[in-house]
Amino acid sequence: MTVAPSYVTHYYRAGKHAFRNLSDLPEFELALVLADLASLEHQTVSARRFGPRYMALRTATEARLRERFVAAGGRPQRRAPHYFVLGESTWFAGLYQDTAEVRLPLAALPDDATSLTYADSITAMGLGLPMGLPAPHPQHADRVYRLHELSELLTQYEPPGDTAPDGLAGYAGHQRHRINTYIEVQLWSDEPVLAHLPT
After folding, report:
1. CB–CB of 158/2 below 8 Å?
2. Which superkingdom, per the lineage (predicted)?
3. pLDDT for 58-96, tens place per residue?
4. Burial status of residue 3 (CB atoms within 10 A of its CB: 0-12, 13-18, 19 or more)
């Protein structure tokens, strides 16, 4: 049986604010931030992709995540979650040249405001299929798990390996492959991260 890590990690660009959620931004500010993120990609400072369809996909994914979480008995306090990985992910940390992190004990996350997907949530929810994004693993497709299910989940399934998706070398083209390198943790409350939120 795999023992769950005792912490979660939120990664963000060094020099920026942690938990700066794109879904919280007003439209005028969102456009500026997305343009900045796209310029980082062109400067090869970031391997993340924020193309013209990204926000529509992210918004639809978060709506489905929330819906599935509520159906599973969750009680979200936010419209969109704060994102973590279970334990750590060197692959995710490497998406930026200069990455900072916030770690929280798993025990600090409230069960009724925390969900999990067994892969990146955009992959797991599968809404990118019409855009040519890869299908999620069939066993975890469209599935949102509760925090109290984690031990059982890790008993039933091996945790994802912290390697490039589908054995890719590096990050080139990763967005066209199934992102299955970590378990994503979604926190639907501000309370556990108040000390880290941008003012």
Report:
1. yes
2. Bacteria
3. 899 999 999 999 999 999 999 999 999 999 988 888 877
4. exposed
For residues 8, 83, 40, 88, the Cα torsion angle rounded to the nearest 10 degrees is 20
Q: How many CB atoms lie within 10 A of CB 35?
A: 10
Q: What is the dihedral of CA 3, 165, 188, 128, to 10 degrees?
A: -140
Q: Name every residue whose Cβ is closer than 8 Å to that of residue 148 and which is 6 or more positions away in sequence.
A: 111
3-state secondary structure of 124: helix
62 closest CA partner among 189, 188, 178, 175: 188
Q: Which residues pair with 105 in a beta bridge?
A: 7
Ordered by start, the domain boundaries in the chain are: 7-196
pLDDT band for position 17 (cuts 50, 70, 90) = confident
Predicted TM-score (pTM) of this structure: 0.86
Q: At what angle do helices 27-42 and 54-71 cross, to 10 degrees?
A: 120
